[in-house]
Amino acid sequence: MKQPTVDWPNAVKPLIKKYKDHKHPLDAKNLYQMLVMVVLSAQTTDTVINLIAPELFKAMPTMEALAKCEPEDLHKYISKVRSFGNKSKWLVAIAKQLKKDSAIPTTMGGLVALPGIGRKSANVIKNYAKAEIEGIVVDLHTIRVSNRLGIVDTEDPKKIEQEMMELLPQKQWDAGMCMSFLGREVCRPTNPDHAKCVMNKVCAYYQSTQN
In this protein, which residues make up the domain named HhH-GPD (predicted)? Predict the structure, then answer.
């Protein structure tokens, strides 16, 4: 349930302070790897992506190397990934379009124009690149946490991003990724650890358990 009376820019400060410097769970070594891993990670756990990444990047260490491949060449490396057929096509198409690592865009418009990359993926890639913030990361964890907190009352990622962008100043738009970290570590789908949550004082879900 949305809480209209909460001063959210002030309320999210402890959350951002705790998680703003957290390393992303995808263990990328450079921007090329992060882009590839983000495309692969849709509907697949970060753990699986991290496991397959070493062999994949040993074979295709750069965008230039990937551009020389056909989608079928990737299958033996990414067969554990959900929808690997489509994702291999997207990755090869991206590589053939960009041709080299230095051509990877770091703007929202440039990234979402690439196959297989939507706003969530673009925000994650931009965050890794430390590029100018143009949006808010909204993944499954962010959806759960933002609704439990009461900052939004919708499961629609686009609406969540838009509403949070309106509620928070741009300098706090990393709150989405911070909520994702909170969701992974504390605000789990079942048995959330309220005692360890830096947001329990303003959390609608927690307050409802106290009545």
Answer: 40-185
7, two tokens: 């001063």
The half-sphere exposure of 47 on its side-chain side, counting CA atoms within 13 A, is: 1
Mean pLDDT of all residues in the chain? 96
Q: How far apart are CA 52 and CA 77, in angstroms?
A: 7
Query: Rounded CA gap, 2 and 147, in Å?
Result: 7
Tell me, rounded to whole angstroms, the distance of Cα 203 from its chain centroid: 22
**Exposure string over 128-149, b if 16+ CB within 10 A, otherwise e:** bbebebbbbbbbebbbbbbbbb
3-state secondary structure of 151: coil
Nearest of 18, 34, 25, 16 to residue 128 by alpha carbon = 34
- What pLDDT is attached to residue 3? 80
The CATH fold of domain 8-21+136-209: Endonuclease Iii, domain 2 (1.10.1670)
CATH architecture of 31-129: Orthogonal Bundle (1.10)
| Residue ranges of the chain assigned to CATH 1.10.340.30 | 31-129
Q: What is the pLDDT of residues 68-86, one digit of tens each?
A: 999 999 999 999 999 999 9
Long-range pairs for 30-33: beta carbons < 8 A, 24 or more residues apart? 30/101, 31/101, 31/104, 31/106, 31/125, 31/128, 31/129, 32/62, 32/63, 32/101, 32/104, 33/57
